[in-house]
Amino acid sequence: MSAPLAGMRVVECSMLGPAAITSALIDLGAEVIKVEPPAGDYIRQMTWPIVEGVSLMHLHLNRGKKSITLDLRSDEGKQIFRDLAADADVVVEAMRPGALERLGIGPTNLKEINPKVVFASISGYGATGPYKDYPSHGIAYDTWAGIVTPGIDDEGFSYIPEHISIGIFAAPLYGALAILAAVIRARETGEGANLELAQSDCAAAFDWYRSETWRAYERPETEVTGNASDDYERRAPGTGGMREGVRYQIYATKDGHLLFMASEQAFWKNFCEALDRMDLFERWPGSTYADHARGNRELQAELRDIFATKTSEEWMEFGGRVNTPIAPVNTPKNLPEDPQFQDRFEWLPASQLGADQLGFPVKFVSEPLPVPDRAPTVGEHTDEVLRTVAGYDDAQIAKLREAGALG
């Protein structure tokens, strides 16, 4: 079978991390033409690690894309861009908003050429608001959204704590979803769309639970309470309210840590029965649902001693066998050793992509997805794209190169 997005063509002007907006589309079979300035996207030298002279970020985010270099300041370069966009499903502006419009090749101009084109602009703070013109990098969107709590070292200096970046990874997923929705509509109606998203907005949207909880707590306590198992006392939002949990908590094992999650009474009973410790259940049966036994230090001490008697692997087998939720506490370094990871993931090989990489996480059952090609060198596919997409012949290409339109 053909790849799910085979036949979809995307023309992308991107710099750095926002290029991730098309990475999932590539994995699903779309054709993405990355238009770069003559000097190229300096993502190839950004962050770490650097794998044989090229950044892992470039190898991952731009895998499978075709690179063409254009000087979009020249009339010839702009015309080439228009020719590429004329038959594209999507044009992506992954840089400061309005850059292509100012060059005369933004959504207003492209719609005249291709009425069904979907134009998607992804940037740090978006096209409106007081921060719209501010320079920024990826962690800014998470600090802005309230996701990162500053660390303080022993000398009193603030530092960026280890955390999962949200804005730069959530925005591409929201953006790709919107792009696909707009393309479906465009193919049905012939009408394209102009999409605009900010990585900061997407960080806030991804963390909706905590923000919406604080918002709800602005209402009177007679209207918005805590959980019934907590006697309706309000907790801190999200995982901030988990610190005092006991039956939903992390415990040390013989060789590491695990997460115990017997917040439902039935799971708690299964656990106690299997250990022949029904005395614990009889003394602290808890509520039917969502009872974490908050603040019960006596029970927490009992559970601490119990979990220290087995390895994490032994507790995982135990939980599965007696129907009580227990999960490993892995790190990004040891996660690939986990048997569940090994069953579900297959590394895309360094021999093909330049570095071992994780593939698209959604499975099309009995239908393997194509493995994308290695991320391109600057302008690697310029002549190929001009011939096959824009229909230029060798003489035209030579003339454009001589004029400096291709860098």
Task: Please explain how this structure is put together.
The protein folds into two domains: 9-206 and 345-403, Rossmann fold (3-Layer(aba) Sandwich), CATH 3.40.50; 242-329, formyl-coa transferase, domain 3 (2-Layer Sandwich), CATH 3.30.1540.10. The model has no long low-confidence stretch (mean pLDDT 97). The longest helix has 23 residues, at 167-189. The protein has helices at 23-27, 56-61, 75-85, 99-102, 107-113, 138-144, 167-189, 199-206, 208-216, 265-274, 278-283, 297-307, 312-322, 339-344, 350-353, 382-388, 394-403; strands at residues 9-14, 31-36, 50-51, 54-55, 66-69, 90-94, 118-123, 151-152, 158-159, 193-198, 248-252, 257-261, 326-328. Helix content is 36%, strand content 13%. The chain has 407 residues and is α/β, with parallel strands linked by helices.
